[in-house]
Design goal:
The structure is a single chain. By secondary structure, the protein is mainly alpha-helical. It has three helices and no strands. It is elongated. The relative contact order is 0.19.
Length: 73
């Protein structure tokens, strides 16, 4: 399955935001968690849109992108 670069970039951004949660607590943690959720929501919306446009299974696309970002690069 061909993965559009913008989806990879959005997932990388979400993973970076998630990574910034480490070591935070209280208000800082809550603020960073909101940033992570917002980045993840942007990724999810883009996956849904691309899957519908390309006629591919949404779940397969999401898992392929996540595997690529988290394990391959």
């Amino acid at each position: 399955m061909e993965i559009p670069e913008p989806l990879i970039e959005l997932e990388r951004a979400a993973e970076q935001e998630r990574g910034r949660l480490a070591g935070l607590s209280g208000d800082e943690y809550e603020a960073q968690q909101r940033a992570w959720r917002a980045a993840a929501a942007r990724f999810q919306a883009a996956v849904t849109e691309h899957a519908a446009t390309a006629g591919v299974d949404r779940h397969d696309l999401e898992m392929t992108v996540k595997k690529n970002v988290r394990h391959d690069g």
